Amino acid sequence: MTDKTYNGWTNYETWRVNLEVFDGMELEDISKTTNWDAYDLGEYLKDYAEEMIFEGHRYDERRPSNLMEDYARAFLQNVNWREIAQHMINDYIAESAE
Fold it and tell me: What is the number of structural domains in the chain?
């Protein structure tokens, strides 16, 4: 089995999405509620990232999806959303303790 970790993250996709979509974003930027669990927050982050990435490129049944969109969606399927969520939760807890 090959180790697919990347810069301390589960894989390259998780590292890259965290860096390019969520870097600098804090839990308070997402919601007034900070009592997220990692699963629910991960699902929210997935929806947020997909909306941001595909904004203006909504599926239209008259137009088949294009190759670029298909590759982007395949890339996003490999993201460990729960890991990104837990990272944000841990950052929030650390900052609150200071």
Answer: 1
Three-class secondary structure of residue 32 per DSSP = coil
Residue type (1 letter), 41 = L
As a whole number of angstroms, the distance between CA 15 and CA 36 comes to 21
Q: Determine how many CB atoms are found less than 10 A away from the CB of residue 69.
A: 14
Task: List Cβ neighbours of 68 (8 Å cut-off, separation of 6 or more).
Answer: none
Tens digit of each residue's pLDDT (9 = 90 or more) over 42-96: 999 999 999 988 886 665 555 666 788 889 999 999 999 999 999 999 999 898 8
Parent domain of 75: 12-97
For residue 1, tell me if it sits in a domain.
Answer: no
> What's the pLDDT tens digit per position in 81-98?
999 999 999 999 898 887
| Prediction pTM value | 0.84
Q: How far is CA 3 from CA 7, 61, 77, in A?
A: 12, 39, 18
Does residue 2 lie within any of the structural domains? no
